[in-house]
Amino acid sequence: MIPVPSQVRIWLAAGRTDMRRGMQGLALQVQETLGRDPHAGDIYVFRGRSGQFVS
Q1: Which secondary structure element, helix H or strand E, spans residue 11, and what is its range?
Q2: pTM of the model
Q3: What gap in Å lies between CA 19 and CA 46, rounded to an integer?
Q4: Are 23 and 37 in contact (CB under 8 A)?
Q5: Phi and psi dihedrals of 12, rounded to 5?
């Protein structure tokens, strides 16, 4: 388990996200959609189309 400080917010993106955008594209989506700073310490969770884990 990953410890998360109690003051950190965890945001879950509903639906599918185009993961081809890369980190910069996802950070831009956080800024434009939520109006939040993606580097402020909160955690953002996105789900790709397949929903499968790759190991």
Answers
A1: strand 10-12
A2: 0.73
A3: 8
A4: no
A5: -110, 125
Torsion angle in degrees (nearest 10) through CA of 18, 46, 28, 40:
-170
Helix (H) or strand (E) holding 27: helix 22-29
State both tokens at 3. 């410890």
Relative to beta strand 10-12, strand 43-45 is: parallel
Backbone angles phi, psi at 17, to 5 degrees: -125, 140
pLDDT (tens digit per residue) in 1-55:
888 889 999 998 888 888 888 899 999 999 998 899 999 999 998 888 776 655 4
Show the CA angle centred on residue 21, arms to residues 1 and 44, nearest 5°: 30
